[in-house]
Amino acid sequence: MSFSISGKTAIITGAAGGVGHAIARHFLDEGANVVFADLSEKRLKSGCDDLADQENARIFVGDLRQKLDVANLLSMTIDAFDRVDILVNATRMFCVTDPLDPADTSVEHSIDHNLNTALKLSQAVARRMIAQAEAAEGATTETGTIINLTSIAAHRTQPELMAFSISSAAVEQMTRSLAVALAPHAIRVNAIALGSLMSGTLRDTIAEHPEYRDVIIAGTPLGRIGTPSEAAEVAQFLASPASSFITGQVIGLDGGRSVLDTVQRPAH
After folding, report:
1. CATH number of the domain that 180 lies in?
2. For a surface tag, which of 118, 119, 188, 223 has the fewest beta carbons within 10 Å of its beta carbon?
3. How far apart are CA 191 and CA 61, in angstroms?
4. pLDDT digits (tens, 9 = 90+) for 23-32
């Protein structure tokens, strides 16, 4: 069983910071060619300023909700590395919703940013993967892999997180649908549903509300907050030959939080 992704070419979106950046860095350390893609030029340059001299790293700034930017990202990847083998859709927008306000547009924005971006890029990359396989000499056991980041919020109900929950559930269904559609082409599609990981956003929240750390830990059976590096290792597994018979699955990375019923029976 091989966990190697060395020599593979990966596009990682949301790579300017947080979990996306951790995945991109980890893939780079594991010998992959990596394109760090993000909307924020400032954050990308700040987080990737040491990559200028690395032959197996590229940086792409663009709004992947736009068709032209999707095409430009794919073109840049092919120009640099000749092919693409792995796509990690790690771009995620988190927003607070007022579910009773008809003027609240957070659901539309969340669907556009979290679902449509991943869908359009997955479709473009999948077409390229299929073309690569058709042009290759001899049979290949796998054409490529697509990994989507989603959240356990897809199956938990907090009205103020309605937009994020809806878009997370949609990404899960997209993952399953694309997995079935692309299986005949030997492209695997899976997702990682994240619980609470110590990203920059969560760190800032805890700094402002220190009691929130205890709330998270109390609701997590493993009794701690996860790390972005743990998400990176799961992503490597899903991108590697070790997971060659896994597709259409949503892997929970939440310390058991999603299986915990916090309503306890009354004490006798």
Report:
1. 3.40.50.720
2. 223
3. 24
4. 999 999 999 9
